[in-house]
Structure prediction request, 85 residues.
Amino acid sequence: MKSETSPFSFKSIIPIGDENKSISKTYSVWGTKWDVREVLVESNGRGGIGIAFETAYSPVPKVIEVLAKKFPQAKFSYEALVTSL
Prediction:
């Protein structure tokens, strides 16, 4: 599923507005240059979900922290796979 049609996006978790959307702004707010790409949402079979997504170059702990604060009743775990070219 492409992020343009996904309900999961960094701008829905931490809005920054299109007028302020420079690379330095998105990096300081989200921790990465661009919004999420290639989102996969799956049920874990135990009443929860898993969300896998791609980002530009770096993990996004800031986004996950804000998401966890918005949903304090939910349990979050976060893993990042960082590769270099």
User: Anything to note?
Assistant: The chain has three helices and two strands. The chain has one domain: 3-70. The chain has a mean pLDDT of 81. Helices lie at 10-13, 23-30, 61-70.
